[in-house]
Specification:
six-stranded antiparallel sheet; two-stranded antiparallel sheet; DNA-binding; 2 domains; homodimer; Chorismate lyase; Arc Repressor Mutant, subunit A
Chain lengths: 255, 255
DNA sequence: GAGTGGTCTAGACCACCTT
DNA sequence: AGGTGGTCTAGACCACTCA
């Protein structure tokens, strides 16, 4: 006898115009979000609940939800439900601060979980970057990072064992850059960053409790020291709604 | 009696494993792309054609197509069909080259179409950036840019009329930065760039012959001259599969 | 174990692009 | 005018999460 809503979650198709139903539903939910009715992190009613009393097919409801997901307004936890997305973190690839730092600076709480840490054979892409044979050993770190408890990215980091022998003996849940500096005296002099929109594949999606195919952002960072040696090679898979890139650059004096 | 294929486009569900059908279909198409069978720009068979002989519902076929779209491998022209995406353009927000320049440098052919050019009232966002009243006049330029004939972005540019009086009299299909420099002696000393994944809304989607909701990338650029005056305020809506961001930065000497 | 989203079918009609 | 994708319905069953 749980108080199952018999009444529609929205009064009536709510919108009008000649736009498709799913967009009207979208608009309605957006209004609920903007009104503060649904704060960040809140869970939406279930898809079937959203249908009740409306005569709308579940597929249509889902269409609206997918639209909102693409816009970055909501996200889903696989087979759990739909939630309102928190505001994105601003990320500046030009700065040298790590994840822990800039998330904290923005008044949010960062967390890191190390999923695996091992000496593993280099895959194709990593081998090319390091200029070594495919299968040659590299420290390989897989970590999940969260903001305010929400998993937002998984990353694979590769470090050459000749550069930082015994790396895995150190605590790996904090800033790797810090460890390399403090324990090995290695600091970064140059950063190469590539980013592009992607879809999360099975492995990354699973680590983020997302569905495979969820829109994401892939960031590949290669950092070098003053001698041009590779310090880290890092691939980060982000939920696409979790970040916002900001760069501020002054023109070089002459050039 | 057109030679309508009675046979399935793929021999059989092609894949296996315990993954969902739509992913098997996806995998099959990926293989066709990788094999060179479907070159960039090629049109896929119609959704109904992809069904023939397979016993698979159209919705499932579409699921596979959406997946490939999210991955950036294919794109659609609204109500026309699905096409193989060409490789992305590499964009470096750190460099001062404009669209025409870096697209050409990469061996591709850039095109620009001016959709509208007028003196219009500033909307909220622009007014804040320029520090003027909402509704105050700004030169407003809407352009569509294409690569090898494929529309990849639409942009809204705002320029202060006090900075560049008579701007609209010049040819606007080339580099605006060049015009500002050559005709008004204004050059850019600082660039502020913000980017985030988004979904194309009705207006932008229409200009790109895309469906509203198509994944996109929004780039907002504000450029300043040496005196700190705003030179351009530019909002670019990109098809998400059309670009790839690349930044290469050296650490400042001391800090 | 109840409830959630994930997958899938088999239709239908429409708006629009293409020729 | 014919064909395309876009929207929508009304079911069904499954895998998984969560309490």
């Amino acid at each position: 006898m749980a108080q199952t809503a018999q009444t529609a979650w929205w009064t009536q198709p709510a919108a009008l115009g000649d736009q498709p139903h799913y967009l009207s539903i979208r608009d309605h939910i957006v209004r609920r979000i903007e009104s503060g009715d649904l704060p960040a992190g809140a869970k939406l009613p279930s898809e079937r609940q959203l249908q009740t009393g409306t005569g709308i097919a579940r597929g249509t409801i889902r269409e609206a939800l997918f639209q909102l997901e693409a816009e970055g307004l909501i996200y889903r936890r696989d087979r759990s439900g739909w939630y309102i997305s928190p505001p994105p973190i601003v990320y500046d690839p030009t700065r040298w601060a790590g994840f822990m730092t800039y998330v904290s600076e923005q008044g949010r709480t960062p967390t890191t979980t190390t999923l695996s840490a091992e000496l593993a054979g280099a895959p194709q892409a990593a081998a090319e970057v390091f200029g070594i044979e495919v299968g040659a050993p590299l420290y390989t770190l897989r970590r999940r990072r969260s903001i305010d408890g929400r998993a937002v990215l998984v990353e694979d980091i590769r470090v050459s064992p000749s550069l930082a022998p015994g790396l895995l003996k150190h605590p790996l849940d904090g800033s790797l850059t810090q460890i390399l500096k403090r324990e090995y005296g290695i600091s970064v002099a140059r950063n190469r960053v590539d980013m592009w929109p992607c879809a999360l594949t099975k492995a990354e999606a699973a680590a983020l409790a997302a569905k495979p195919g969820t829109p994401g952002l892939l960031i590949v960072r290669t950092s070098f020291d003053a001698q041009g040696r590779i310090v880290e090679y890092d691939r980060e898979y982000w939920r696409h709604d979790a970040m916002h890139i900001h760069v501020d650059i002054s023109v070089p004096p002459v050039a």
